[in-house]
Design goal:
Elements (H helix, E strand, L loop, with lengths): L4 E9 L5 H17 L3 E4 L6 H10 L1 E4 L13 E4 L7 H8 L3 E4 L3 H15 L3 E5 L5 H7 L7 E4 L2 H6 L8 E5 L5 H14 L13 H13 L5 E5 L5 H12 L5 E4 L7 H4 L4 E6 L5 H14 E9 L24 H4 L3
Parallel strand pairs: 1-11, 1-12, 2-3, 2-4, 4-5, 6-7, 6-8, 9-10, 9-11
């Protein structure tokens, strides 16, 4: 019998679903329970293919735009994703007499309010974020065209030319690298000394907590795996944070089946985390896959305890949510 090589898995905590993602998925599940299928969802509810497919199996129908919803289903709910939407989307839904449920994360809504507050106070808004990301599109869509300028890098910040350099305010996408964003803000402050910060931090607690846990687990790890989707901003940031913090190699994976076992090499310490839209059931799947091949010891790298819980929409609070309703993402807890 071949002896399995020992492997220590440093399992990050917090990891996986944040309160905003959990709430968004619950909204779709509860809407299906209350109103029956189909429930339409504009864009991916969260950036995770496994979650999307799990909801499709329950009767959710994903569309890119609400004009794809057939007239005979206009009485069925349509859910807006956790990333937030431009103001034009709910306005369009009302014009079409659609019943919509907004699953925008409350912390994204907070950034929307911060941007609108800057504008009310006469400031041009600079949004630090990634072009084309749904959250950025949603935040820019809270204000009139031309009222927001996107800044992606410190180089962008140092070259930026605006009409009103003394009346600027900034906000940020909620899922950015804390360190990268600090560098961009510093560059903006050097270029525009009078720029105004938002009333509260824009990067959300969950992004910061997951990055902190990765920084704790990464030093000395031979390989760091982040469970997440390639279009998940916060997951991709965790890969970068792991490498900066001392992991020899860091990789983004969606499922255990994606792991290229022959390429892993001789590893003794594995770091493991999951982005805010990655379900715990896949973390379990990956740990089990390593246990089949290695003599695994799991060590916890916990840097914070998260107790945040965001209530679902009022329309859905009369429906009971059970553990079995969410087992497709949480496993049998």
């Amino acid at each position: 019998m071949t002896m399995k090589r020992p492997l220590t898995i440093r399992l990050c905590g917090p990891r996986g679903f944040c309160a905003g993602v959990d709430r968004a998925i619950q909204i779709v599940v509860l809407a299906l329970k209350k109103y029956g299928a189909p429930v339409y969802v504009r864009h991916e509810i969260v950036h995770n293919r496994y979650v999307v497919e799990g909801l499709q199996a329950k009767g959710a129908v994903f569309v890119e735009e609400i004009d794809e919803i057939p007239p005979e289903h206009h009485a069925q709910p349509v859910v807006f994703s956790a990333h937030g939407v431009p103001k034009s989307v709910p306005a369009d839904a009302k014009a079409r007499n659609l019943f919509y449920l907004d699953a925008t994360c409350p912390l994204v809504s907070k950034v929307h309010k911060q941007a609108m507050r800057h504008q009310r106070q006469g400031r041009h808004v600079l949004l630090i974020g990634h072009e084309g990301h749904p959250e950025v599109i949603g935040t820019m869509g809270q204000l009139p065209d031309g009222a927001v300028t996107l800044v992606e890098t410190a180089e962008d910040a140092s070259r930026l030319v605006v009409d009103t350099p003394d009346t600027l305010g900034f906000v940020t996408q909620t899922t950015l690298s804390v360190e990268d964003t600090a560098g961009i803000i510093e560059a903006l402050r050097i270029r525009f000394p009078n720029i105004q910060a938002p009333a509260a931090e824009s990067i959300c607690y969950a992004t910061t907590n997951r990055q902190d846990a990765v920084k704790e687990a990464a030093p000395g790890s031979d390989l760091f795996l982040v469970v997440g989707a390639p279009n998940s901003s916060n997951s991709k940031r965790l890969v970068e944070v792991a490498e900066r913090a001392g992991a020899k190699r860091s990789i983004l994976v969606q499922r255990a089946s994606e792991i290229l076992w022959d390429d892993i090499g001789d590893i003794a310490i594995l770091g493991l985390s999951a982005g805010a839209s990655a379900p715990e059931i896949i973390v379990d799947e990956i740990i089990d896959a390593f246990k089949e091949r290695y003599d695994v010891t799991v060590e916890l790298a916990i840097t914070a305890e998260e107790t945040e819980n965001f209530p679902v929409n009022r329309d859905l609070r009369d429906v009971e949510l059970t553990a079995s309703d969410m087992a497709f993402v949480n496993g049998n807890v």
